[in-house]
Each structure stands twice: as C-alpha cells, then as structure tokens.
Amino acid sequence: xxxxxxxxxxxxxxxxxxxxxxxxxxxxxxxxxxxxxxxxxxxxxxxxxxxxxxxxxxxxxxxxxxxxxxxxxxxxxxxxxxxxxxxxxxxxxxxxxxxxxxxxxxxxxxxxxxxxxxxxxxxxxxxxxxxxxxxxxxxxxxxxxxxxxxxxxxxxxxxxxxxxxxxxxxxxxxxxxxxxxxxxxxxxxxxxxxxxxxxxxxxxxxxxxxxxxxxxxxxxxxxxxxxxxxxxxxxxxxxxxxxxxxxxxxxxxxxxxxxxxxxxxxxxxxxxxxxxxxxxxxxxxxxxxxxxxxxxxxxxxxxxxxxxxxxxxxxxxxxxxxxxxxxxxxxxxxxxxxxxxxxxxxxxxxxxxxxxxxxxxxxxxxxxxxxxxxxxxxxxxxxxxxxxxxxxxxxxxxxxxxxxxxxxxxxxxxxxxxxxxxxxxxxxxxxxxxxxxxxxxxx
Length: 443
What we know:
Blueprint: H1 8-20, E1 44-48, E2 51-54, E3 59-62, H2 78-90, H3 100-111, E4 117-121, H4 124-139, E5 143-146, H5 154-157, E6 188-190, H6 196-206, E7 210-215, H7 227-238, E8 241-245, E9 268-271, E10 282-286, H8 288-291, H9 308-323, H10 325-347, E11 351-354, E12 359-364, H11 369-382, E13 385-386, E14 390-392, H12 399-421, H13 425-428
Parallel strand pairs: 3-13, 5-6, 5-7, 7-8, 8-9
Antiparallel strand pairs: 1-2, 2-3, 4-10, 9-10, 11-12, 12-14
Helix pairs in contact: 2-9, 3-9, 6-7, 10-12, 11-12
C-alpha cells in the first residue's frame, strides 16, 4: 500500500490548505476526503497523458475522473498545448478582442445548425448562470424548472430554500443555501429525469411564470421515449426557454452536444469541461431570437475575452472531430464497465453499474458500500491507480492501461470479498471513511 510517509508532502500541503482555503479546495469533487482521507494524494506535481505524479514523486495511472471530465484528450495534450504556446507568444490579452472567439462561434454553430449565436465564460457554473439570465431577460419571467446538477450559483441553490430540511434528500444533500437571498425561494423548482409528469405538474401550476426548463439531455441513463421531445413541447407551450446543460455530456458520444443524437433542438445549450481539454472555457450557444436578449441585460467580464480559452476550444474540437475521439471514449468506457462486471462476478461481489459508457459508475450493493468503496480506493492506490466508483474515459486511455487496471481490480475485488466475509472492511481502512458528497437528481 502507499503509506502516509510516501505522500507526506501532499498531506502537509493539505494541512496548509485547511488553514488558508475555506473548504480546502476550489472544487468539491477534488476534496481528498471524498476518496480516501489521509491516503489520497490531493496534489500533483505534473501530469501527462493519463499519468499523474504527486508531490512526493509517486506516479499513478488515472482511472477515475480525468480532471473531473475536463481532460477528454488526456493531460497536457501536445496539439492543444502547442496552440496555447503559440497564442501566448502572440499575447493572450490586450485592449482589443481576439478573433478566435468569432472563429469558435462559427465552429460551434456549424456543429449545431439550430444555433446562430454564442457567448462565453471561463467555467461551467457561470455559463449556466449566464444562460439562466438570458432566459429570464428574454421571457421577463422568474421561475425555472430543472433536473440534475447545474452549479453553485444563487439561481440553482434557491431550490434548497425550503422550510427546515424538507428538501434534504430530494435534491442535493450537503448543498446548503446559506448566503442565497431568501427572496429567491420558489424560483427554482425540481423535477426528476425521465419523470415527465413532474415537469407537466410544474408547468400546469407555474406555466405563466416559467422562464426556463433546464436539464442535461443525458447523464446516467438514456432519455425515455418522448421525454426530451415532450419537455421541449412544454417549454414552447408555456413560452419558456429550453436549456440543455451539456457541460458534462457534450463531446462524449459525438462531436458536439449529445442532444444532436436525439434529434431535439433546445433554445440554448451550454458547454464547458471537455470543450477545451482542461483550459478554462465555457460557451453558451442558442438561437438568435433568444440570445439577443443578452443585449437587454448586463453580462460582461474582462477575463471572458482572453485568447487562451477560445484557442484551446478550437484546438480540442478540431482534433476531436478529426480523430472521432468519441468512438474511442465509448469503446474504452464499455471495456471498463465489462471488466467491473466480470471481476465482480468472479469475486462473488454484488455491484451496480450504470451511466453512459464514457461516464461510467459502479457501486457496491451492500449496506456498508461507502466503507467498501473507500477500501477499494485505498487498495488501488497501493497498486498505482487513482480509482474510485467513477471512470471518465479519455482519448489517452489505451489498452495497456485497461489491462493493467483489470488485473488490479480483479485482485482488489477478491480481497474486498474476503473482507466482507470476515466482516473486516472497516478494520482494514488506514484512515476515515470517505465522505459521500452529493447525489444528482439524474440518479
């Protein structure tokens, strides 16, 4: 196993972070305590392809979330990085605008023919906030209906402004609305994915006040027959804007938004993560009629005009399209799902496997599943893998990585099965049980 001594620099950095950074990290999903507290190497010195080195020089193969889904081509992709170095040499910011943002708008609208205009941010959460602002400006209404996770901004957390803990468990446990004005109560109404009757109920009660219907077109399960089409119909009937959050789903199943596969046309689609292979970039595209409402409100930020974000997005999308990267992502995800299934059957473990292939998940089907997952991560770290119950495939994942991972999973699943039989799962943990984080409404 990787001992605390071997990751001492990372643990010391974690202690420093606790004293200086509220919440320790900038992203909830990167907190070490979500994986294996006291053992997960929370900080890296370098990363290349699908390999990461921690502060102590230990090398790991990343079979987890690959930058929380951002590094779709792999860490430090040479083609993308070369385009960035060229942009840096020319200057990344000045008093004028970069032409790359126009080129990117042309490319995004070419890939998505239903769209005519684009605006940009440098992250997914703020891109969603811009989309909601545009929808409210266009409709001059306040209420939004949504399913799934869409970021940290006030418009979204307003859904948890219920009395006491009445929404706890139904929405996102752990996402407190403290700091969100209570006057926003009742402006964000949730419905569950593939539960069209819940959305119909919201539209029936609030249709004349509905600014937007917001959802991921696909996440951990395929949309039911007619679900997306009916959601679009309800938006049209109520005069609301239909917004597809493609921040996670886009560029996994095709080149562009996943909604293209289902033949549905939103009014707005939002992108980030995979669009730029780890460089900060977010994009909001939409039909001209709705997008022009951005002119009637105030949406503006200095660093949304830098050259690096659009340059990275152009290089990433062009490579993605040229090499049909999505085919590799799907194939790799299917291989991982199959090896989970086979390894679990061989070990006699009960597991649940779900998610579209490029965004695969598994969980142990036991009452102490969280303890078992922590032990899985702990044991996989000892074998040189960053691993959890999530696997986001990358173009840099090759068969040699899958084969090595398979051998490790086979061994670890057998050891976990023995621990279950001996009732010693928790005793084998070298630290605390990983925190569970939050659940999405699309689960």
